[in-house]
Write a structure and sequence with these properties.
Length: 351
Amino acid sequence: MQKSIERIAGESEGISYEFPLFRFAGTGKAAPSAYLQAALHAGELPGVVAIDALMPMLAKAEAEGRIKGDITVVPWANPIGRAQYHFGEHQGRFHLGTRTNFNRDFPLLAAPDAALLPDTGLGSVDQRLKTRLVQLSLGHDIVLDLHCDDEGLAYLYVHTSLWPAMADCAAAMGVDAVMLWSEDTDGTFEGASIMPYQNAPDEVAKLDRRVATTVEYRGILDVDGALAAADAEGLYRLLVARGVIADTALPAPGPFTGVVAPLENIEMMPAPRAGAVLYDVKPGDRVAKGARLATVVHAPGETDGRTEVFAPQDGIILTRRSRRIIRAGEDLLKLVGDSKSADARSGTLED
Ligand SMILES: [Zn+2]
C-alpha cells in the first residue's frame, strides 16, 4: 500500500487543502479496479469509519497476495468542507464560498477520457477539488461514493444501465434498498462516474462489470463501531464478489432481497406548514395509503394549530429528517411508493 498526499491550492496566499490517498497495486492485470471515497459531503462519516475498518482487511489481503485489481481509497474526500464551521456548526454539504453543493457540478464527460476534463488549475477551489476527484476515479471499474442521509436505511443509488447487473453488489453490501435513476442534470459524482460510459462502445463501457453508486450508509448519527465493522465487511464482500480481491473462504452473494424502485416512486412529502415535527413513522416502516406520517405543530396550543400529513400511497419509509424544526415546503421524509409518485421529481431529489 502506498500513501500519497493530494494538495488543492486555496484561493488566497497561505491556504491549501490536503487529503491522503491510499493505493493498493493489484497483481492480476485483467482484474477489475476499484475506487472508494467517503465524506464528499464532509460531515457524513459512516463511510469514513467503514473505510477505517476496511483498511486492515485490505492490508491483510495485500500481505497474503490476494489483491488482484488496483484499489484506490480516499477516506475523507473533501478537506474544504471538513474545515467549514459556521457559527459553531459544521457545514460540509455546501461550499461556503460559492454556495454550491459539494456533490453537484461535477464535469459530466461525453466519454471516459481524462483529457476531456477541465484543467485542474482552473476554477474555484471546490471546482478544482471536483475535477481532481474525477481524475483520480476515472478508469476504475468500480467506483463507490460513500455518503449518508439524515436518518435512514442503508441504500444505494444506481443508474438503470447497471441494474440488475449490480444486484450482487447490493446483496454483498447488505443494504436495504436500491433507488434506480436515469438522468443527471446536476452533475453528481456518481453521474460523473457513469454518464461518460453511456455512449461508449461495449468493449469500453463494460457495463456488466462496471459499478458506480452513491452509497447512503443510513443516518448522519449512525457513526458507530459495530456498524462500521459490518459495513467494512460488506465493502470487502463486494470487492471479493467482483474479483478485485481473492478470498476463497467467502461464498458468492445470494440474490438481493431488498427494495428496488425507480426514483420517480419516491414521495418527498413537503411540509404543509412550518413548525415542530412529530413523526409517526421511522425508516424501515411499511405504511399504507392514508396512514398518518407526521404531524406539524405550527401554532402550539391553538385550535387547528396542528397539521397532519398522510401517506399518498402504500410504501416503505426510506429516510426522515434528523432535526425536528421544519420550514413550509421543506421535505419531511422519503417514502418509497409501490408506484410512481404524483409529485415525482427528475434528477437529484434534494439541493
Ligand atoms: Zn451526501
